[in-house]
């Protein structure tokens, strides 16, 4: 390496130094610190006390910890299939060349780029027990008495999931639409000439061709379902009686409400392992498929 190359290398290092410092201080150090804190009992103010695996045991085996994990799983069972199916359905609807389809693509995508808090407030009005539009519609149809959508333990979690499905469906639609654009149209035209109906085309041609994108969408949806927070705090605050508290919200609650940083850090690493496990499973399945 000559003098000019060494000079250019020094300039390059000086150019990336601010970004490197930021990465170390605000990414790598907090990750390492949270791992160490997860083995302690610390309330931010006092001195951390080493407690071993107690925080992990509490996060995984205590009644509240088990309830939070079950809520997270139940939320995913509602969110992932609905968001994926609706995203795919909308992608099929807007995958046309008709005039004005760009308007509908934009319309369906708008909720995703809208602030979650703003969407949650709007849905909170619609979910209102006495004056909400949903209960008014059910009353008009004489189908049901007013439902406490956000204060009934049986439906609060589902209500939060439905709001996030409505918000995120447009994003999954765009992903599926990108996959649909890569499908060889001659296969679809040939199937139509052979007399295949729309369902047969979707089932036998489009879905197999979209398998990699479907795997990717399922991965993103499962990750998003595991870390939901904004909708929960805006709609239910985890209630009633922790009925809608998922892992993402429990981490916030333990860290910044109860100031139990050790338990919050342990739950953060549990969440990290869940997301990492899902990603690894997706990678293994993709490798096996290829």
From TrEMBL:
<feature type="transmembrane region" description="Helical">
    <location>
        <begin position="106"/>
        <end position="127"/>
    </location>
</feature>
<feature type="transmembrane region" description="Helical">
    <location>
        <begin position="12"/>
        <end position="37"/>
    </location>
</feature>
<feature type="transmembrane region" description="Helical">
    <location>
        <begin position="266"/>
        <end position="285"/>
    </location>
</feature>
<comment type="similarity">
    <text>Belongs to the binding-protein-dependent transport system permease family.</text>
</comment>
<feature type="transmembrane region" description="Helical">
    <location>
        <begin position="73"/>
        <end position="94"/>
    </location>
</feature>
<keyword id="KW-0812">Transmembrane</keyword>
<dbReference type="InterPro" id="IPR051393">
    <property type="entry name" value="ABC_transporter_permease"/>
</dbReference>
<keyword id="KW-1003">Cell membrane</keyword>
<feature type="domain" description="ABC transmembrane type-1">
    <location>
        <begin position="69"/>
        <end position="282"/>
    </location>
</feature>
<dbReference type="GO" id="GO:0055085">
    <property type="term" value="P:transmembrane transport"/>
</dbReference>
<protein>
    <submittedName>
        <fullName>ABC transporter permease</fullName>
    </submittedName>
</protein>
<dbReference type="Pfam" id="PF00528">
    <property type="entry name" value="BPD_transp_1"/>
</dbReference>
<keyword id="KW-0472">Membrane</keyword>
<keyword id="KW-0813">Transport</keyword>
<keyword id="KW-1133">Transmembrane helix</keyword>
<dbReference type="GO" id="GO:0005886">
    <property type="term" value="C:plasma membrane"/>
</dbReference>
<feature type="transmembrane region" description="Helical">
    <location>
        <begin position="201"/>
        <end position="223"/>
    </location>
</feature>
<dbReference type="InterPro" id="IPR035906">
    <property type="entry name" value="MetI-like_sf"/>
</dbReference>
<dbReference type="InterPro" id="IPR000515">
    <property type="entry name" value="MetI-like"/>
</dbReference>
